[in-house]
Amino acid sequence: MNLLLAEVAQATQRLADAGVPSPRHDAEELAAFVHDVKRGELHSVKDADFDARYWETIARREAREPLQHITGRAFFRYLELQVGPGVFTPRPETESVVGWAIDAVRAMDVVEPLIVDLCTGSGAIALAMAQEVPRSRVHAVELSEEALVWTRKNVEGTRVALSQGDALTALPELNGQVDLVVSNPPYIPLTEWEYVAPEARDYDPELALFSGEDGLDLIRGIERTAHRLLRPGGVVVVEHADTQGGQVPWVFTEQRGWADAADHPDLNNRPRFATARKAMP
Length: 281
Fold this sequence. Notes:
The protein starts with a helix and ends with a strand. The mean pLDDT is 94. It has nine helices and nine strands. By secondary structure, the chain is α/β, with parallel strands linked by helices. The strands form two sheets. The protein has a seven-stranded mixed beta sheet, sandwiched between helices.
């Protein structure tokens, strides 16, 4: 074992003792970041090239600063995104949400599908949709100026059209034309603040986390926006907490003009997102 791998083993134990959920992964990712190699190449770093700044990054992660804030990057599906203070860090669970949305758009008989991503944050969902549905027209909406600093960096040079605005009033010029509305909105109840992981509670913006007493305030608003934007037969996809699986589909009722409201599991088989189709007139 070379020096770096020995240090990674020690770092893994330190991160585990600090309660970091994925200590081995994070210790290796930080070692790869500091030494500018891939995780699978750590064994190739010569002992003389060991960089002591590695322990500075470990101390930051030990204090529960998000891994992505330390490295300045987040991986999402086939994307590498720039992230940092002020923007929500994309999570692996959202990849299954996007996968379902991509399949839904591909199944539509539409040459150039029109897609809207509300509460886009880093732009992860919008960029993944644009990348994996090549002829799509994708609009992304974000309210926070702090988040937009990062969104603009990520969408620069892409086909994604970025707008600053409120998800409740966004893009009136597209009313009745959109094929798919997708969103990972804030959905944590205010009463759950103390139970949120430190990486989210202390570093993700509150605007991206909390939404009323039951966590569903913005989802209710997105239901109205989605119904306004979608064409008849268009589809909405909304992420939610695994504890809200029985509640969110009921936001998209037949009385409000929806059909086929359903919940779907993530890769861990936990309820993760709801979908519905705008009813035909």
